[in-house]
Amino acid sequence: MTHGRRTGWLLGVLSCAALLAGCHQQRTESSSAASTSATDELQRVSGAGYRGYIVAADAAEGWTPSSAEIRELEARLEAARPVFVQDGRSLGTLDLTRYTRQYRGQSAEGRRVIEVRFFCETHRHLAAAHSLASGGGACFLNARYEVPARRFSSFRANSGR
């Protein structure tokens, strides 16, 4: 790589880093303000091998899962030994006890489902706020549990990009 190309590349990287740092700071500030008011809408829940937050829904969003529904979901999750998929490839079986969860009640085609978001140890603080992560790979997992059928219909990890 020539000196001119190397300098141009380095300037490009530094510009991207500065832009991302500014975006991250802005998102952190706005999510801090949001999480302060959202804390009242989150109910902490834990049991053998899991910890997380139930997200209270307003009427437009869906419904709020009960602690009993979360206990049942977690018992079935352990039995399911899920394999998460990322960008079309299997990640194998992951140690889900290392993830903090968010549980959100949704309605899908008239059925009650619980969307479970898993946050790795590095980002577990995000589970205590109304957070939605994109990218991050196996650090952010998602599962969908169909309440009436008592089964999981999907397991996926965020894109690695």
Walk me through the structure:
The chain has about 160 residues and is of the alpha+beta class. The protein has one domain. The chain has a 6-stranded mixed sheet with strand order 1-2-5-6-7-8, covered by helices on one side. A two-stranded antiparallel ribbon has the order 3-4. The longest helix has about 35 residues. It starts with a helix and ends with a strand. The N terminus is likely disordered.
Condensed summary:
The protein has 161 residues and is of the alpha+beta class. The protein is 31% helix and 33% strand.
Label this structure with key terms.
single chain, 161 residues, two-stranded antiparallel sheet, 8 strands
Shape: globular
Helix percent band: 25-40%
**How many individual domains?**
1
The overall average pLDDT, rounded, is 74
Give the low-pLDDT segments: 1-39
From the N-terminal CA to the C-terminal CA, the straight-line distance is: 26 Å
Read across the widest sheet, the strand sequence of neighbours is 1-2-5-6-7-8
SSE order: HEEHEEEEEE
User: How many helical stretches?
Assistant: 2
What percent of residues are in strands? 25-35%
Main β sheet profile? 6 strands, mixed
Broad structural category: alpha+beta
The radius of gyration computed from the alpha-carbon positions, rounded to a whole number of angstroms, is: 19 Å
Q: What is the number of E strands? A: 8
